[in-house]
Write a structure and sequence with these properties.
Layout: H1 16-29, H2 33-39, H3 43-46, E1 48-51, E2 54-57, H4 65-77, H5 80-89, E3 115-116, E4 119-120, H6 122-140, E5 154-158, H7 165-173, E6 183-187, H8 192-199, E7 207-212, H9 219-236, H10 242-245, E8 246-250, H11 253-259, E9 266-268, H12 285-312, H13 319-333, E10 338-343, H14 351-363, E11 381-384, H15 395-400, E12 406-412, H16 422-439, H17 443-448, H18 456-459, E13 467-472, H19 477-498, H20 509-523, H21 534-547
Parallel strand pairs: 5-6, 5-7, 7-8, 8-9, 10-11, 10-12, 12-13
Antiparallel strand pairs: 1-2, 2-13, 3-4
The protein binds 6-O-phosphono-beta-D-fructofuranose (F6P).
Amino acid sequence: MRDSASPERQSLSERPQWRSLARHRGQIERLHLRELFAADPSRGERLAAEAAGLYLDYSKNRITDETLRLLLELAEACRLRDRIDAMFRGDRINTTERRAVLHAALRAPPSERIAVDGRDVVPDVHAVLDRMTAFAARVRGGEWTGHSGRRIRNVINIGIGGSDLGPVMAYEALRHYSQRDMTFRFVSNVDGTDFSENVRDLEPGETLFIICSKTFTTLETLTNARAARAWCLRGLGDEKAVARHFVAVSTNADEVAKFGIDLDNMFGFWDWVGGRYSMESAIGLSTMLAIGAENFRAMLSGFYAMDEHFRSAPWTHNLPLLLGLLAIWNNDFLDAPTVAVLPYDQYLKRFPAYLQQLTMESNGKHVTLDGERVDYQTGPIYWGEPGTNGQHSFFQLIHQGTRLIACDFIGFCQALNPLGDQHDLLMANLFAQSEALAFGKTAGEVKAEGTPDDLVPHRTFEGNRPSNTILGERLTPHTLGALVALYEHSVFVQGAIWNIDSFDQWGVELGKALAKRTAAEISSAIDPVLAHDSSTNALIRRYRNLRK
Ligand code: F6P
């Protein structure tokens, strides 16, 4: 049993600060954003903060100054400052995997010193960056050719999870800055359709595969990598071609060598980089090939600017801290179990998918660091689509459904593809949506428009729906880095307060183990003895019969 008298061992929900927030929720529930804005004409400017090129307006949350004060007190009580320092210092804060958590070292300038077990890792980071830079220059400049001497025109990243979602998100987000005479594709799914459709129009002699896998043991990635090697050899007919058409990104040199990739063509990283925190490591090689080393380093500078802000800015103006605390407030106290991420920028179309792994693999945990079952909600569900598309599909539920959904709107003031007044229209929609969600439309207002009485309830908008708006000047590599780091640290803040390990992912293991056993049963030449539950047995039998 936990000793609830000791503050160190006290469950989060027993802490006085948590209890104060729970009581405070009663007061907030009676307030409407309409009243909060009416009572304070400067609220929209006051409840906002800015850093690393990003402006966060959090005024449309259901909070008062008291809410913020209580949330900051909670952060203090949970010793957030110590937790932040421990992460940046390289302590093994990923306790269940006994690892340091140092993605911040990936974007540290050469002048910094960050030690893991007494060894400064910053020079190692920059050595890999320099190798990536040289390689990217050779490929982009046409100096690195394929086996038959043809220029590399296609780059295919094969990886899954953090070895796919970051690279594909970054490529799409920064496509505007990419080398347009090259094609970039991303294969992740073990479904053969993914590989087949992605290579069908490509020439093996012009195609470079980047096999991205932290562990280099992931079933999907190795299966697709083998398919890629077979496809390449079918086209080029010579084992030696592998050396010109395959590079690996991994922490596991032994497995890379076993696969047959020359270690000269391997770009490394380290166990203190989590898969979902790795897009700016060598895992971002496809990003660098697409946008060039200079833009890649500009992206790192955006990450770094947000890191520095997170470490040093006062808490009342600290963007990741505020975003994280508001996520806890909405999730745990206002019963809003999901966050809709709504980028009003087509280039960010894969950003919600990227955030899903970052947030949900990190904070989808049900026990504390000490292994105790939590009695509060942890990681909210993140989902979303670019605006304005989402407005014509699921926004109805956000505006008038029975559940409270927190929203993060993301937009930029300058268009990368100016087309008439389309960017103004796009941004007008962003501002209109957050306004409509917050303020709604009362029955009185609807009636005053001459709406028939029977339609008034249908056309009334309650409002009081919380949202954040993140505004940047322009989507650049620097801004993207800052945006990703903002969410990374916000996830950290949430996990630190919930007292969970945001950096492990044991929840993916059971399914992997069962799939291995099931795959053997499916492919068995003789009818296997199935010892699953009756549902799984019947499904496997049916599948075996029909696949014949
Ligand atoms: O299965 C989950 C996971 O381990 C993720 O955490 C990771 O990003 C992904 O698989 C891919 O792992 P790897 O890079 O080792 O292939």
